[in-house]
């Protein structure tokens, strides 16, 4: 659309207003003569109405902004005035509420407002111990007692040297130094620790069934006492050994699952809880390799019903085996034989227990003190090799690293070279150990089918370790889990280091391709059966062959 001068609407929008106004004034003819008085009055009235409307709208907008600013000024300072509660106020609240701990309102205020805020500080003032002990004696609320035992344990574990702990949190002063300079005489850790230890010791020795839950919490809190105190450690040893004397006599069927099955009679539940609590406390105590009672109690835990107790027992034995492998091997004795408790751990639903088992078997099977007992080393080697078939990648990779001689950063080149030699030459032979239940069921059945016999024979067929490792790494590198991929890459890296150590020492008789490219008869059917029984999570549609995997590993190594 254009006017008479040829200027379009877009030209008017995009042009300079000053130039446009001047141009229009020049191009526009002279204004017409004034119109009639009635028309002039009408135009003036409409202009006045527009100005009034515009003024009203501006006033409304100004009033709205002013009101919003006033509301904000009234609300925001209230939030800013609410300052965080100081440590002194929290301590004062604990002292005041402990005197009225029998009231529900006091307990509710402690649980919801005082105890959670005190946890953000990196240490606890020892002067709170008398009030905490009062709460422990008078209060029956489980949540309050859980906080009480937690803070008593923190007072025991706090060194008090600089008032700063490694766990972080809001810094606090050195309470003992403040107590020393206090003119009124402050409370130090040396004043309250004996009282706390006596109270927790008496509760940990209480065998009343109704006191069972508090007994477990008291024993756990007592383990946080500094290990430098021989008197406290001696008390803990007596308590733990006393509990294990009573809960280790009755043989029990092992629970399945990480936390055991639900239900069961009350006596068995209490016994399982005591087994877990006792071995958890024993795990926190300093190792005593020369103490036969310590070793005996740790070995007892392998046969316990609680899976977590078994895990703690295996971790203790794994640490003991680094300093006394001969004593640990003799202590385990029949447990490592087919049908023993260590064989049951292979099927336990606790990943960390099987990881500890792998480290234990490695420490014993590589001990020089057992060179004259090759039968014992062979038994532990067999258990370690069976962990290569574990469905968990973490357990399998830990077993591979143990076979390679990689456990910590202190291994020698000879150990790494021997690990590569074992990986390329050893063969896994699964033991034939039918259980009593299987034997009874087989005696009742007339005759097993031929297909079941063939499947069992395939799964029991001896397999080279290198072939098992290659197959497992192949399936792991096809995983969509990034942690699994990273763990598999670390395993390949350690394989390369062990291989380099073997060639650096000039080890001969290493045929790396002897088993990788050699497949047994009916290999496809065997691999399918093996994957169904041992690795249910392995992807069935393989995209890499054994030859491709060998080339990939060779490139990485």
Automatic annotation (TrEMBL):
Residues 439-457 have a biased composition (Basic and acidic residues). SUPFAM superfamilies: ARM repeat. Residues 14-29, 37-48 have a biased composition (Low complexity). InterPro entries: ARM-type_fold, TSET_member_tstB. Residues 1-57, 432-465 are annotated as: Disordered. This is Uncharacterized protein. It comes from Nicotiana attenuata (Coyote tobacco).
């Amino acid at each position: 659309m254009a006017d008479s001068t040829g200027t379009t609407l877009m030209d008017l929008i995009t042009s300079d207003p000053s130039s446009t106004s001047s141009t229009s004034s020049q191009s526009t003819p002279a204004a017409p003569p004034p119109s009639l008085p009635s028309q002039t009055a009408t135009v003036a009235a409409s202009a006045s109405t527009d100005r009034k409307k515009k003024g009203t709208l501006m006033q409304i907008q100004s009033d709205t902004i002013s009101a919003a600013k006033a509301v904000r000024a009234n609300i925001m300072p209230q939030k800013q005035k609410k300052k965080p509660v100081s440590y002194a106020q929290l301590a004062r609240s604990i002292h005041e509420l402990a005197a009225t701990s029998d009231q529900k309102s006091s307990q509710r205020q402690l649980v919801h407002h005082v105890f959670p805020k005190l946890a953000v500080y990196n240490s606890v003032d020892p002067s709170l111990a008398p009030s905490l002990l009062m709460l422990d004696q008078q209060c029956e609320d489980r949540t309050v007692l859980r906080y009480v035992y937690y803070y008593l344990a923190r007072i025991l574990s706090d060194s008090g040297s600089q008032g700063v702990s490694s766990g972080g949190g809001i810094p606090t002063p050195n309470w003992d130094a403040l107590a020393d300079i206090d003119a009124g005489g402050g409370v130090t850790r040396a004043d309250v620790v004996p009282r706390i230890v006596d109270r927790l010791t008496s509760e940990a020795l209480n065998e009343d069934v109704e006191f069972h839950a508090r007994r477990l919490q008291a024993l756990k809190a007592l383990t946080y006492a500094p290990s430098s105190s021989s008197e406290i450690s001696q008390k803990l040893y007596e308590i733990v050994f006393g509990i294990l004397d009573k809960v280790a006599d009755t043989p029990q069927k092992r629970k399945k699952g990480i936390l055991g099955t639900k239900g069961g009679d009350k006596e068995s539940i209490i016994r399982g809880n005591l087994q877990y609590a006792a071995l958890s406390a024993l795990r926190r105590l300093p190792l005593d390799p020369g103490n036969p009672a310590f070793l005996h109690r740790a070995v007892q835990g392998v046969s316990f019903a609680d899976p977590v107790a078994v895990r703690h027992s295996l971790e203790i034995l794994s640490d003991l085996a680094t300093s006394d492998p001969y004593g640990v091997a003799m202590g385990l004795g029949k447990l490592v034989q087919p049908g023993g408790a260590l064989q049951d751990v292979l099927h336990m639903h606790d990943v960390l227990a099987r990881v500890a088992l792998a480290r234990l078997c490695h420490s014993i099977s590589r001990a020089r003190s057992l060179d004259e007992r090759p039968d014992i080393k062979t038994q532990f080697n067999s258990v370690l090799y069976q962990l290569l078939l574990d469905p968990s990648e973490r357990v399998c990779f830990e077993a591979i690293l143990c076979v390679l001689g990689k456990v910590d950063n202190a291994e020698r080149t000879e150990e790494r070279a021997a690990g590569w030699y074992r990986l390329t030459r050893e063969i896994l032979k699964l033991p034939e150990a039918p259980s009593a239940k299987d034997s009874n069921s087989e005696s009742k059945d007339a005759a097993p089918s031929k297909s079941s016999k063939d499947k069992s024979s395939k799964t029991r067929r001896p397999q080279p370790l290198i072939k098992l490792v290659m197959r497992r790494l192949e399936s792991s590198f096809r995983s969509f889990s990034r942690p699994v991929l990273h763990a598999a890459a670390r395993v390949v890296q350690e394989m390369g280091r062990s291989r380099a150590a073997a060639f650096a020492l000039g080890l001969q008789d290493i045929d790396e391709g002897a088993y990788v490219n050699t497949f047994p008869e009916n290999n496809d059917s065997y691999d399918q059966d093996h994957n169904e029984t041992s690795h249910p999570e392995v992807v069935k549609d393989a995209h890499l062959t054994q030859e491709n995997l060998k080339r990939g590993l060779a490139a990485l190594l």
